[in-house]
Amino acid sequence: MRWYLWCAHRFVLSQYFESVGIRTRTFHQYPELESLVMVNVRHIAEMGAYVSLLEYNNIEGMILLSELSRRRIRSINKLLRVNRNEVVMVLRVDKEKGYIDLSKRRVSPEDVAKCEDRYNKAKGVHSVLRHLADSRRLYLDELYEKVGWPLYKKYGHAYDAFKLAMQPDTGGQDDPFDHLKIPEGLRDDLVAYIRRRLAPQPVKIRADVEVSNFTYEGIDAIREALFAGIACSTEHCQIKIRLIAPPIYVLSTMTLDKDRGIALLNSAVDAIRTTIEKKDGKLEVKMAPKAVSLKEEKDLQEMMDRLALENEEVAGDGPEEE
């Protein structure tokens, strides 16, 4: 009975890990020495922390206490937390005994960014193959053997092959799936889902500026300057300007190319500055153009709602009647 419960528990855990996209694997079964891997902290002990290597089928590894930080450790919980992902370096791999020693202190911020990018790509590949396995009622491991591993071997990362498949009319020898031994219908489903799942998402670019003019023209000069910024809009990137609270304005645009969107808002800021300075006004950049997250947009909206509420006329604000 206990054996049955243990097996059921393991099955439920494996289904959970696969459902949330944790069970991803690279082409190799074990990581190479000095390579960077993404791990999830499972348990913190006196000797160090036990972790699961997310890109290697959740095999267990250990971050030794001496490899946590270059500085003196006062509290392990400030460096590591259970269930949080970390980027670490592989120090030793013993395939026979199953020991994998890892280091956190040898990882630089640049290494973290590279590893996170690679891991996010692996999750994208995994989500595509998992969807295909569910819709076609196939084993996920079978799809990795027929699709995932051959693409990893040929292109270095299957995600790069998926990006090539998104380009129209790849055809001929440029088609990344030509060498795969899969049915035509399965290939068509794979390409269709890749183009739907991995299509680039629009990015919101935002800049905050303070525009003021205390001359006779005042408001008219500010309005003219803001319209000069809006005039920098293109067919694919429309610039919008909203008032937060005088004299602060928000410039924003949606684009598929982040760098191009930032450059567009920079040109709009320059146009506003040139126009307002001709009218003896002034522009000050409060936040340079950058891609913003949903949280930043939510915070902005909450601030605007709060300011609007404060400016609303309430009972007793009006002049007293005699």
Automatic annotation (TrEMBL):
**Stored PROSITE patterns:** S1
S1 motif domain segment(s): 34-105
Kindly indicate whether the keyword Cell wall biogenesis/degradation belongs to this entry.
no
The organism is: Corethron hystrix
Q: State the name under which the record lists this protein.
A: S1 motif domain-containing protein
Which keywords does the record carry? Answer: Initiation factor, Protein biosynthesis
- Which cellular component, as a GO term, is one annotated location? eukaryotic translation initiation factor 2 complex
Family, as annotated: Belongs to the eIF-2-alpha family.
Q: Does the keyword Protein biosynthesis apply?
A: yes
Q: Name one GO molecular function term.
A: translation initiation factor activity
Matches recorded under Gene3D superfamilies: EIF_2_alpha, Nucleic acid-binding proteins, Translation initiation factor 2, subunit 1, domain 2
